[in-house]
Amino acid sequence: MKKLRIAIQKSGRLHEESIQLLKECGISIDNGKDQLKATAKNFPMEVYYLRNGDIPKYLLDGVVDCAIIGENVLIEKEYDIPFIQKLGFSKCRVSLAIPKGESYTDINFFNTKRIATSYPNTVRNYLKSKNVTADLHLINGSVEIAPNIGLSDAICDIVSSGSTLFKNNLKEVVTILKSEAVLAKSPDIDAISSDILEKLNFRIQSVLMGRTSKYVLLNAPNEKLNEIISILPGMRSPTILPLAEEGWSSVHSVLQQDTFWEIIDQLKMAGAEGILVCPIEKMVV
Ligand SMILES: Nc1ncnc2c1ncn2[C@@H]1O[C@H](COP(=O)(O)OP(=O)(O)OP(=O)(O)O)[C@@H](O)[C@H]1O
Ligand SMILES: O=P(O)(O)OC[C@H]1O[C@H](OP(=O)(O)OP(=O)(O)O)[C@H](O)[C@@H]1O
Ligand SMILES: [Mg+2]
């Protein structure tokens, strides 16, 4: 039976959450220590544990059918590999940073400067688009140390909380791109694997929607129902059930995380009482 070959990071920032996502998709992987290849027990899938930086080439060559990878790495490798789904974790940005004490005016600051980075193509393309020429130094890790040891005048690296920059006396001055983990697809994938990938992506979307949604139950006097319904988005429209107490109803709906508190405030103002909020494990639309 044909199996979908998926690459995930062997170890590092993406590993845990990639495994967790597959688990929440109901896919159980026999994850032995130091195992570089594993077969899923209950889904036609083979998992290859690889270095994040090597994955784009494997996708390009069709050695794997799909991968969970940082979007920034796909951009850096310039292979024009499509991604089919953003996954909502490992959110970060690729930014230019300079020593705190330097005064920054505009991008021309970087003209003729030495920039240490693990993302040379990303930096070069960005500076080229701004007509700036700099001297790039390729470093594979601990990039933020470079200006402090006289190796460079500036850096370009991944920033998330900003704490590594802060600890190394650097300040972020330009965000070149924003990134998160994505599900990427090999340009060489065959039809059968493509079908399996679609099934996987359907499960992933259900998990992701569940993660960002909350199930809300509330009580309201019947005369307030119209106003409350107009506030609630719901999947189609809210569910209304009568309470044992005459003149009152229970209203059930689904709220999105980003607008959640705003809507809860409006519901309270409109007369909602006893508001219960429950997590949603999966959401199939
Ligand atoms: N501090 C961070 N916060 C959020 N996401 C990050 C952070 N650092 C890296 N990432 C994301 O996770 C990906 C993997 O980063 P990580 O440092 O684990 O591996 P790597 O050194 O880039 O790759 P390799 O697996 O080839 O060693 C990055 O490409 C980026 O998309
Ligand atoms: O803004 P922050 O939250 O501090 O995160 C940014 C840091 O995280 C990553 O490094 P990582 O810890 O993966 O080490 P590495 O340089 O060895 O990849 C990245 O390269 C930055 O150094
Ligand atoms: Mg890293």
TrEMBL record:
Offer one example of a GO biological process linked to this entry: L-histidine biosynthetic process
- What pathway annotation does it carry? Amino-acid biosynthesis; L-histidine biosynthesis; L-histidine from 5-phospho-alpha-D-ribose 1-diphosphate: step 1/9
Q: Where is the Histidine biosynthesis HisG C-terminal domain?
A: 212-282
Keyword vocabulary terms for this entry: Amino-acid biosynthesis, ATP-binding, Cytoplasm, Glycosyltransferase, Histidine biosynthesis, Magnesium, Metal-binding, Nucleotide-binding, Transferase
What EC designation does it have? 2.4.2.17
| Membrane keyword on record | no
Q: What is its main location?
A: cytoplasm
Q: Can you tell me which residues the record assigns to a coiled coil?
A: none
InterPro entries linked to this entry: ATP-PRT_HisG_long, ATP_PRibTrfase_cat, ATP_PRibTrfase_CS, ATP_PRibTrfase_HisG, HisG_C, N-reg_PII-like_a/b, N-reg_PII/ATP_PRibTrfase_C
Q: What class of enzyme is it?
A: transferase
Q: What does the entry list under GO cellular component? A: cytoplasm
Which compartment or compartments is the protein found in?
Cytoplasm
What name does this protein carry? ATP phosphoribosyltransferase
Taxonomic lineage is: Bacteria, Pseudomonadati, Bacteroidota, Flavobacteriia, Flavobacteriales
